[in-house]
Amino acid sequence: MERLKSLFKSKADALGNEIKDLIKEHGAKKIGEVQLAQIFQGMRGITGMVYETSLLDAQEGIRFRGFTIPELQQKLPKAKADGEPLPEGLFWLMLTGEIPTEQDVKDLSTEWRRRSDVPGHVFRTIDALPVETHPMTQFSVGIMALQTESIFAKKYANGLNKKDYWDATFEDSMNLIARLPAVAAHIYRRKYRNGKAISSDATLDWGGNFAHLLDYDGEGFRELMRLYLTIHADHEGGNVSAHTTHLVGSALGDAYQSLNAGMCGLAGPLHGLANQEVIKWVIAMQKAIGTERPTADQIAEYVKKTLSEGKVVPGYGHAVLRKTDPRFSAQQEFGQKHMKDDALVNTIWRIYETVPPILQSMGKIKNPWPNVDAHSGALLLHYGMKEYDYYTVLFGVSRALGVLAALTWDRALGFAIERPKSVTTAAVKAWLKGEDQIWGD
Ligand code: NMX
Ligand code: MLT
């Protein structure tokens, strides 16, 4: 992987120099003002960090290094001619800013295969948990058990020059990404397949092999995994999983500790766990109404009931986006191409026609449109993956690509430990009376 590593290093050195000049020349420029409400309301709209691998536009959705999802589908290497992009290609792009060649992606698949052996103690640690343990908890425990392998932690303990942090983080990230499919699939097979043993298929790419390890060998599911692992990988830096990974990494937590922290964030129902909540909610609705294909009126009534119980409609809304999530649209296209008559998929589309006007009419919801999680479960279920409490692990395997590429950038650019100022409400009240100030130096 010398080409990837040296390309990254040359890009990081150049950007590091640019940033030094930029701060020197423009460091005192103001980029915005903070209103009091924002610090009580999730810091929404405050630009507070730099994150290189992707950027979110409220109207247009995510761009990875400048490329939209349809552009990635067109430009990134694929396993088959009219198929979905390979997530290896996206990782390369996020790390280097360049679209890789077919050969680059083949080499990266081979490299991840070479690094993919998981030490036995990791499986034994997971197996020590009760089998009913939520898959995200098992995943998190598995990642922490793997931390024994951290090159950064070992080198740091022996005295590591700041200039070499990025190198050890790159190696940790590559090893961790290579091993995550085996760890994640072990959890699936342990929980839902009576511990069935499946070995890797060395002829497959990273996503294809993950599908195989999960015991899904059809080409349809493999293609879904390639798309899924690509579109869930990154969503700029402020979302809970990316920000948490960045935050823990800023204290020089290694890649394992940082990713694990991010995964605990992803496990929250307002973030990644929403993908399981969507299917749970849709299945409960189908049961309550007594049909697989509820009408728009029946859906509307069920949505109103959900809202009247003080619950959120899972899969709808977003902190930044103000339009239908292009990740939803990419999955809708996949559904139209591969399963346009599927009852559940059609219900997801009918919900899409029905929910936004209802949410809009409430007046307080800033984005009534579906996010990525509104669609993903229905596609998985089509191929037989009905165990919806596992879905967030799939999201986590994908999210590792973005947040670990970004962590490698953090280390290469020498970003500081993150430590924003906080205040108490009493301090705010004193400030309002002119008795104190609430900003830091
Ligand atoms: N259903 C019901 N109420 C909602 C929804 C929804 N889907 N979305 C927002 N609201 C409420 C929200 O709870 C808040 O209520 P209150 O003032 O009583 O506290 C109000 O509308 C204003 O919220 P927003 O400013 O529009 O949204 P915010 O930025 O606070 O939250 C989410 C964003 C994504 C957390 C929120 O839209 C939500 O809870 N959605 C459902 C869960 C979900 O799908 N999460 C997945 C997000 C994507 N991901 O993978 O991470
Ligand atoms: C994500 O993919 O991280 C979610 O859409 C949440 C977010 O961006 O805030």
Task: Give a quick set of tags describing it.
binds nitromethyldethia coenzyme A; 20 helices; binds D-malate; mainly alpha; two-stranded antiparallel sheet; 441 residues
- Radius of gyration, in Å, reads 22 Å
Number of strands: 2
Question: pLDDT under 50 segments (min length 5)?
Answer: none
Strand residue content: under 5%
Q: How many distinct helices? A: 20
Amino-to-carboxy terminus distance:
44 Å
How is this structure best described in words?
The protein has 441 residues and is mainly α. Helix content is 59%, strand content 2%. The chain is built from 20 helices and two strands. A two-stranded antiparallel ribbon has the order 1-2. A hairpin with a 3-residue loop joins strand 1 and strand 2. The protein is globular. The protein starts with a helix and ends in a 9-residue tail after the last helix. The structure holds nitromethyldethia coenzyme A (NMX) and D-malate. Nitromethyldethia coenzyme A (NMX) binds next to loops.
